[in-house]
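[Archive record]
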Amino acid sequence: MTFDRSQIPAMPRIAAQAIQLSNTPNVDMKQLVDLLSADIGIAAAILELANSALFGSQGSTANLALALARIGMDNLQNILIKSAINEVFPLKNLPTEYGWRELWEHLLLSGQIAYRLAKHLHCPKPRDVQMAALLHDVGIFLMGFGAPETLVEITNECKRFNKTFSEVESRFGNDFHGSFGQDLAMAWHLPISVVSAIRYHECNWRNELPSISSNHLQTLFVVSTANILALNHGPRPIGFPAVQELRKDLFEGFYIDEGVMKNAVRESLEFLEQVR
């Protein structure tokens, strides 16, 4: 599978600047609101979430600053990431054979679960963990953009022979959607913990685990766990079957109680249902 890395699209300017600004200590809210107001799509998504069943109990609002205060920076990041992906990879330019709706729903659920698990584990930067989970399969979007014929071939073989995405894509060389996702994350200058989690989130199947710092390994553990829980309890993208559990030999020393995981899944599903 070949793809010219120089053709990776940059993260849209407003989304990139807003992510950076929102992660700044003592963020200047007026500056942030002014920036977000310049993108009609992002502003509309913020207002829609703020007026949803989850946040709209105080009444409807058309004030972006008030809407932003309601939803918070963590939910803003989800909106910014989704907006960026939709802008650089519009569905009309992606092969229709792949199930993009199921992939998006899987990523959204993974991000919500990962955030809750990260908070439980007191991860230093739970927002980064959530970002990594939300983007862990972003390489499939990049494949659809840069190697659409290959993605269609992988998709058709997964459907025809009931094979996993990982099994089929391995026939096309050393590049796979994790490495494509890594390239995109690096081009977008995302935190190294996010880059590593995207690259290695499928170590449970590929028998590989890099030598990375403990904090980055914790991010990878949470993202991999959230991915599996989302596959087991939510929509499954083409080629990604349900998985029973994370291989303990790959993440020795990390543990999440089963009850905590069940609560994270339940709360995440309820959250996504309320913001539809």
Remarks:
- The chain is about 65% helix and 0% strand.
- The longest helix spans residues 64-88.
- The domain at 89-274 is CATH 1.10.3210.10 (Hypothetical protein af1432).
